[in-house]
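Hi there,

I know you've been waiting on this one. I reran it after we fixed the sequence typo, so this is the corrected version. Both the input and the resulting structure follow.
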Amino acid sequence: MGRDFPLTHPQRLPVGPDTAYHHASKIEWKTRSDIFGEFYCRAKKSDTNQIYTYKMLNEAAFLPKSLTITVSIGEDVNICFTRRKVFAEDAVIYKNDSFIHSVPKNEIPDILVYPIQGVASSDAGLYTARSIAGAKSTSAITRLIVRKCKPGLWGPSCEHSCPVCSNGGVCHDETGECICPPGFKGQTCETVCGEGKFGRSCKERCRDGYCRSMVLCQRDPYGCSCGTGWRGFNCSEACGPGFYGAGCRLTCECGDMGKCDRFRGCVCKGRHGARCEREVVSSLPLSLSLSLSLSLSLSLSLSLSLSLSLSLSVPPKPQNPPMLNGSGPHHLVVLVNKEPYTGDGPVTSVKVIYKQVNTSVWKTVEGSPILYPFWCLSYPIYPPVSNLSYILYPFWCLSYPISSLVSILYPLWCLSYILSGVYTIVYPFRCLSHAILSVLPELPPAPSNIRSCNITDTSAIITWSLVEGLAGLGSEGNMLFYAILGSAGMTCITILVAFCIVLQLKRATVQRRMVQAFQNIVREEPVVQFSSGSLNLPSRKHKNPEQSVSYPTLEWNDIKFQDVIGEGNFGQVIKARIKKDGLRMDAAIKRMKEYASKDDHRDFAGELEVLCKLGHHPNIINLLGACEHRGYLYLAIEFAPHGNLLDFLRKSRVLETDPAFAIANSTASTLTSQQLLHFAADVARGMDYLAQKQFIHRDLAARNILVGDNFVAKIADFGLSRGQEVYVKKTMGRLPVRWMAIESLTYSVYTTNSDVWSYGVLLWEIVSLGGTPYCGMTCAELYEKLPQSYRLEKPLNCDDEVYELMGQCWREKPYKRPSFQQILVSLNRMLEERKTYVNTTLYEKFTYAGIDCSAEEAG
């Protein structure tokens, strides 16, 4: 016995004998964290036929709809998780410990559904769901089992047809055998074990005698379910009326012939079968011939010779069920399918049992399939015609009235007779009764005084009369009905139109208020000039006093502002819905506040210039468009649902947010070493692209990295970026001192190499889970100590190889620092080795790196 998930735990587990059952073993967990995961058992010296089971903790935010889901290849399936806790975080779904899907926190439904269309073998595996900040041990687990053949087939090439597995059994896609649910046995799972019993031979018995609160797992492709008679996630709820079997997935169809037992199904006196459709037949053979010969000789011993000849006739049994051959508005034509059959034939009599879906009464049609291979099943719902003798043959169809039809058909049959053992041809005759459509609660009665005469082989004269009182239902009743119907329809249409008008006016009012709230006051002289999709901003070079930048434009009316998601001293970021190229999408709208300085506006326009020139890259927040309104610039960029990387890292500090959970799961963060290294690699990849385009970022820090869909890190905030190999800043302003290289602090010189220094500080932020660089030191102390080879200390949870990479970024000589391409190669190698380079396990005397928000604001 062992554990397959999570992979951080050992595979094999110590086991001991379980004397409560035959040939059983058990595991005893020592700590609470050992309970969670996917466990398996298998025979010794065998790696096949493993049986899996699953355990989850009470802290799980979701519950799976079922522990396992079995489907055949090509089918559609929904992986469902039920929400059991409310949390203000995004929900994430993993497959085999790899991220595949997320749902924003404000859009999480009560039932989280991950649909898969046309299941393939590669879709099989373990699916887990949790909150994005939750530890792995708080995940809900379900396993998708995919049969490699289409439904009803098995074999290496799926060339064989599966047997009909009863009582919820599943056909094995390799052997063709039926894997029976707990509580059933037999080649096709037709035998019921009974209450509290299970096992291949029904010899095992649950300790409580009922199998309540027990999850029983079989080998694939069956998976896990409750014992027969129980349902629910904890298998503690009894089956409701009319349901039975493992997980209460089967429906009793006993009709009036028996009662439904939640452990056994239909229990019928003198009958058997899933629907009580078969009578108990004596097991004596139909014919028996016995010959006995006896010879006796006396000598020193006595010998007895006995020969027995036994001949049995086995009743025939068709191999295929009846098939639907045709249908009409009031009938079904069923093919009996008497051949091929097993046993001694031929089949001389067949009984077909049928019922309407919304009724519980079963009806039968019985006859000889030799004469009538096609039977017509009917469902009459009117009283039969009185005072008329007729014989109903199986192939004749009864027509029944429907309340919406004006013409109602009443069938009549003549008596048939047999002459010299040959069936005569009998024709059914139909009478047409004209009814008047009205709002009466019941149909008009059948015609009366029906008489027939002059009957020949090809014709007959039939007369009848209508019941008195029907004549009063004339056209006036129809007119009244149509008047009422039209009046009601017009009333509904009027209410609907009024509702739509009120709703539209309300939306327009809200939008107008939002626009007014986010509009700027018209300034006397805008710093930046706009004209039809181009931006004219003062050049920083004296040779060209003005340069024009083209940008993708957005219409002001195509921007629907929503909530403010970020705010600084001089700018705002607003979530909005925009319309671009005819498509609606989420966006982040950046704008400057009215009291921002000219330099702030110039830097903001410079960010638009940089984004236009950079183009598209997966690790850069890309430009969606820009809009000029009343002399102000509104910048639309990609919306990152998970916010900035700094806040994302600090939210993962589970020891500060939930100490009890952190101690119980021995973890300091909800993020793994692989996820943290992925963030670092994403930023390095984006910065390498900037370096190739000869752009300098100048403000690279975790606060300026956004976490997008699928947790991809994207570089943002290009307000200080410059499209030059070397940039010398000649003015003093707000500076990110703690992230700046020595040459930038000393000489105000910025290059790609100074961005590499900032990247080293960013890597330190990632490893320290959002710590403040040089926490406890002032900017003046940094100016003094950095030239003296003082550097950030190594985080306690950091591997030497990662800290060495940071040190390379902080080399005093800029040309000795690695390029972003070299940094990316090193990080990719670490990711491939799958070694724990950042230890997030909670060890003794663990402490997080300090956070000093005031120091960050000061630079």
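Quick highlight: The two ends are 56 Å apart (CA to CA).

Best,
R. S.
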